[in-house]
Amino acid sequence: MSDSMSKHPNADNLARFMLGDLPREEARDVVRHLLSGCAECRQVTGAWWPRELARTPETRKVVAIDGRDRAQSRSQQQDYEPMFNRVAETLARRERAFTRERRAAPELRSELEALPEEVRLERAASDPRFHVWSLVDSLLGDSRENGSQQPADAVVLAQLATTVADRLDEGRYSSAAVYDLRARAWGQLGNALRIQTHMWDAQKALDVARQNLERGSGDAAERCRLLVLQAALYGDMKRFDEAFALLDRVITLAERSGEDHLRGSALIRKARLAQRRDDPETAVELLREGVALIDPDLDPRQVLVAGHNLVHLLVDTGRYREALGRLDETRALHVQLGGRLDFVRFRWLEAKVYDGLGWMQRAARLYEEVRASFIEEGLAYDTALVSLDLAAVYSQEKKNAEVRRLAEEMLPIFSSQKAHQEAIAALLFFRDAARNETATVSLIQEVADYLRRSRANPGLRFRAGATS
Amino acid sequence: MTIPDRTSAAESISQVLIKVRPALERVLGSYDVPPEDAEDVLQDTYLTLLYKWEKVQCPEAWLVGTLRKKCIMYWRKRRKRIIDAMDAAILELLSEPERPTQERQDLSRDFDRVLGRLPERCQRLLRLRYGLGLGPSEVAERMGYRPSSIRKITSRCLTTLSRELAAVGFLEQER
Question: What's the pTM?
Answer without folding.
Answer: 0.66
